[in-house]
Amino acid sequence: MTAYQNIKTETKGRVGIIRLDRPKALNALCADLVRELGQALDAFEADPNIGCMVLTGSDKAFAAGADIKEMKDQTYQDVFLKDFITVGWEKVSQVRKPIIAAVAGYALGGGCEMAMMCDFIIASDTAKFGQPEITLGTIPGAGGTQRLPRFVGKSKAMDLVLTGRMMDAAEAERCGLVSRVVPLADLMNDAIATAEKIAGMSLPATMVAKEAVNRAFETTLAEGVRFERRTFHATFAFDDRAEGMAAFADKRKAAWKHR
Ligand code: CO8
């Protein structure tokens, strides 16, 4: 397995776990960390034994944002020429296998944005979310102004982006940013059990389901429903669709060919 400096990876059954691990900076997302994260995502994406991923941090911080110390002296030319953020970061939103964010502690700025790039967020009761970039004289740069309103609506997104305040896990669940909140001690067990359940499904069905839900955020309702209909029809080409329905009719457990 590749040796990483800023993350740790492990597998549990068909689940690939990536842990952000830069404790001295509360997992601030420096360039090396983002590069390693991209490599780990690529490796799990390519591994036929992995059906779902979990992205997590420490009890204290999922990630406290982009690395401010690394950013502070950069010029417009620097960030423009290297297309800062686009390279590396987008990979989290581009993996085709499902990925769950398991968030404890701070998920701020780029950390909150990275959690939102995952398919859904399971939070511990100690989690804190926010987009504090305004307090640094800048704005979210990894999708915060676009993804946050889609999760929580305009009013709450404006409140968070314009004040830079943090919200706790209860508020994040109320407004739909997270799918569920669990006690800190249960966070990883819950996230891994959820990922195992997903990884136990037919992989092609899981991947097209993810693609179809994501389409809802990128198109009109009519186009989205048309896309869903065509994709649903296409699942009739899957061996596993035939097996799933046959297993139901035979009152037996489906034996997926593609997992
Ligand atoms: N960048 C660099 N270092 C950080 C960051 C960060 N984002 N967050 C914390 N650290 C460091 C601290 O400097 C400190 O280091 P040191 O011990 O050397 O002084 C160490 O981590 C521990 O932090 P604190 O002592 O501050 O810990 P506290 O428990 O007192 O406070 C907080 C925790 C409230 C989370 C506080 O650390 C904080 O406010 N951090 C900054 C949060 C923030 O503003 N995040 C947004 C960053 S901007 C951003 O994400 C833009 C995204 C756009 C895309 C970016 C692409 C790269």
UniProtKB/TrEMBL annotation:
Q: Does the keyword Lyase apply?
A: yes
Biological function: Could possibly oxidize fatty acids using specific components.
Lyase among keywords = yes
Q: What is this protein called?
A: enoyl-CoA hydratase
**Similarity comment:** Belongs to the enoyl-CoA hydratase/isomerase family.
Q: What's the catalysed reaction?
A: a (3S)-3-hydroxyacyl-CoA = a (2E)-enoyl-CoA + H2O; a 4-saturated-(3S)-3-hydroxyacyl-CoA = a (3E)-enoyl-CoA + H2O
Keywords attached to this entry = Fatty acid metabolism, Lipid metabolism, Lyase
Which EC numbers characterise this protein's activity in its record? 4.2.1.17
Q: Please list the GO terms describing molecular function.
A: enoyl-CoA hydratase activity
GO BP terms: fatty acid beta-oxidation
Query: InterPro entries, alphabetically?
Result: ClpP/crotonase-like_dom_sf, Enoyl-CoA_hyd/isom_CS, Enoyl-CoA_hydra/iso, Enoyl-CoA_hydra_C
Q: Which domain of life is it from?
A: Bacteria
